[in-house]
Design brief:
The protein has a single domain (26-209), classed as Rossmann fold. The longest helix is centred in the N-terminal third of the chain and has 14 residues, at 5-18. Strands 5-4-6-7-3-8-9 form a seven-stranded mixed sheet, with helices on both faces. α3 crosses α7 and α4 (110-123) packs parallel to α6 (146-157). 35% of the residues lie in helices and 19% in strands. It has 218 residues and is an alpha/beta fold. It has eight helices and nine strands.
Amino acid sequence: MSASPQTVSELRSLLSARFPERNRKPCGGVPAAVRSIDDALGGGLPAGRLTELVSLVPSGGGQTVVSRLLAATQGARQRMALIDGADGFAPESVRADLLRHLVWVRCHSPGQAFAVADILVRDGNYAAVVLDLRGCAERVLRRTPASLWHRLQRAAEAGSVAVLVQTTSPLVPAVPWRLVLDIPLSLDDVDRPLEALAERLEARTERGHAPAAELLAG
């Protein structure tokens, strides 16, 4: 039995009143300094929330996003943490002065990465924490218990840290916002300034695996 349009409209109104936070465009807490990402998120990565950034190919711009976020947090005199799930971060590609405010944790398995993320997200000393799972075996990531993701989400909600999860395919359940970088960079971009590379990135928004209340309200 399907609901009438009037009933659906009334239900959406009720849900909007009951869950107002689900109907607002996220208010950016930490600018990513990448135009398409900041525009999609209303100014930057939302504080107290998880945001998933999917790079569909290895050269899809994930490293550029991390580099720009490093510059943005340094300019704001904030600290940042990078949890490198597959030890894939290339510090030599970033200006040395941009690494001074970064805590970089090199992991060798998704399990290590989640354990470290749980600690650093709760620490309270970071404006942004990046959990980079690119390069990790997808078959292993697919077996990650949903309880680990929900624990990480609750840890973020308890504070003011913006958590960016980088993946190569949609993975995070119940994520409020998922962005997809689907325009890879080419070899011709190697010598471009970082700011120019960031301008070339295009992020499209996809609905995450949201709770039922959000799906009905959408």
